[in-house]
Structures are given as structure tokens and as C-alpha cells.
Amino acid sequence: MQAARQLITIISGLLMRLVRDGSAIVWLIMLPLLIIFVLGVTVQGLFSPDFTPARPFRVAITEASSDAQQHLIRALGSQEDFFEIIPVSDLDARRMVLDREVDAAVLVPNGYPEEAPVVVSEPGQAVGSILEEFIQTERWSIAAVDSAVELARMEVASEGPNTDAGDSPWLGLSAFEYYAVGLTVMFVMFAAHHAMVFTAGDRESGAYARVRAFGVKRETYLLGGWAAAVAIGVAFIAVMAGLTRLLFGVAWGDWLGWLVLTAVTAAAMASVSFLMSSVVAKSTTLEQLGSTVFMIMAMASGSSIPLHVLPSWLKSALAWLPSRVALEGYFQLSHGAHSRNLAPELAALGTTSLILFTLGWLISSVRARGEA
């Protein structure tokens, strides 16, 4: 019972320190809201289902002989608002991208549609993602038919780039919806990190030693710091969800799914910070390390850079990041998913939280040997 009271006191104390820090509130609340507004207004066209480029993308595509390959070329060519198709050889296609004669190139293998075409474009260009989504849709369609006659019938019904959520839940969202979720997931990492920076500062100032003198065990203090980080994370996401709904009309979906996802997201981000605090003792260094790590995670996971423009290989390679998993979970809720649909995301975030917390606890225990 005494340990529980001590734990509550530690958590509430760290929460109040953050609330009293006016600059932190401005940094954590006002800044992301401002960025959401600016990006929501300026890049809305890219997220619109009616999006068309100012001019059609010039796309070099390798010449083909099979029915399926020719169907893909005709399907791309039928989207005159999106693509200007230039049939070329394999070597010429790559060269033209390097020389910026075209915006992108599509290398269609002889084994198409069983083998996926390769899209070549400059990193960060929307044309690459648009082509990949369109080609993926065409491959699924071709796989569903058995004859060239059905392929020809399908060609007439081709409807352009896919905007259905499917395995890409970021599609079909407005810019306000995308960045409300993205920047909330980005800044919750910074919010949770405040608790760990506070505990590191307490060790330097002597406050930790005074707390221990009152009979608080090291384990209770460590757990209290992590739990405070989780509580701050949950509170931050709740505030951002409320404000973005009020100011920008962002719908966060099923409340039960949101609540569970928010809890495990906050726990995972708190565990990332907890692990760093177990390795780095100095508060200023810990704060700088957190800023660096979280900015990299935000960019790589799609919180600050839209997943629409990230290369396919990068999106696949970094899908394991907890910030990316949380991002996709919230996107699914925005599309109407319920808590039962989020089992993979909840399991991944829960496992991440447990592993990182356990690792941080072990490192802290080794470093604290000899401490009473």
C-alpha cells in the first residue's frame, strides 16, 4: 500500500512539473497545431481523391510483347491526366530518369504480372507512389482473369490510381486528417520523454537522493518515472485528438479502439524513452538524444514526411518502427476500423513496449549495483 501511494505521488509530481512548464505546453501543443494548419492548407491537393498533377507525369516504360505487358502500357496511357507514356528500352528508361528527361520509369519484366514491375524515380517524388499504387491495382486485376478477352474488357473499365485504404491506410485521408495523426504520433514521443528528462535531472540535483531518504525504493522511482511518461503520453494524445477534432474536424474513429491504441502507443513511446534514460544519465544529453532519435523516427515512419512520397522499399523496410505502427493504427480508425481490427498493431506495440521496458530495467539494475 505504501509503495502504491509513493508511486502515485511520483507520477502526479512529474505530471504537475510538466503542466507548470509553460514553454513545454507551447512547444507540445501550439507548435503541432500550427504545423497541422499550415500543411493542411498548403498540401491539401496532394491528398485529395480528385488530385491531378499540374501536368501529366512523363513516364518511360519498357517495350513489351505479352498481352499482360501491353495491357499495363495501355492502362497507364489511358490515364491522360496523370501519365504521358514513352515506350523505350530498359537502358534508355534508366538513363532518362537520371538525365531528368522523364519523371519516372517503369521496367516491366517478362514475367509480368507474376513479377512486379520496377518503378524508378527520384526519392520523395509523388509520381513514384502513384505509379506503384496504380500498377499494384492492375496486377490484382490481371490475376483475377484468365483470358485476353477479359483483359480487354477490363481495360475499358480501368478507373485510374487506387485510393482505397487496403494495405495503405494513409490513402483517402485529407491533409488535415493525415497530419493531425502524424504530428500527434511525432510529438507524443517528445511529451513522454519529458518525464524521463525530469527524473534524470532529479539525480543530478540531489532530489532523487532526498526522495530515497524518505524510504522510496529505486524500483518504485523507476516505475513511477515510466508510468508518468505513459500518463503524459495518453493525456497529450487526448488533448490533440480533442483540439484537432474541434479546430479541423478530424475524426479519430471508434472510441474504444482509439482508447486502447492510445494506451499502448503511449506505453511504447515511454519505453523508448525509458531505455534511453537507462543508458544516458545526464539530463541535457538525454534530452538531445531524444530529440535526435524522435526526429529520425518521425521522418522515417511518415509522421512528418507523407508516406505517399516515400519509396516503396523504405516504407516496407521501416514498417516495424513503433511510430509507424501507431500511425497506421490511427489511420485505420479514421477509415472506420474497430478495436478488433487493430490486433496486429496492438500486439506489435505491446510487445515493443514490454521488450524495451525490460531491457531498460535490466540496464538500470546493472548500473545501480551497490545502491541500497
Keywords:
372 residues; mainly alpha; 4 strands; elongated
3D architecture notes:
With 372 residues, the chain is mainly alpha-helical. Helix content is 67%, strand content 5%. The protein contains 15 helices and 4 strands. Strands 2-1-3-4 form a 4-stranded mixed sheet, sandwiched between helices. Strand 1, helix 4 and strand 2 form a beta-alpha-beta unit. Helix 10 crosses helix 11.
Q: Topology, please?
A:
Layout: H1 2-20, H2 22-42, H3 44-47, E1 57-62, H4 67-78, E2 83-88, H5 90-98, E3 104-107, E4 118-121, H6 126-143, H7 148-156, H8 175-205, H9 207-213, H10 218-248, H11 255-279, H12 283-301, H13 312-317, H14 322-334, H15 343-367
Parallel strand pairs: 1-2, 1-3
Antiparallel strand pairs: 3-4
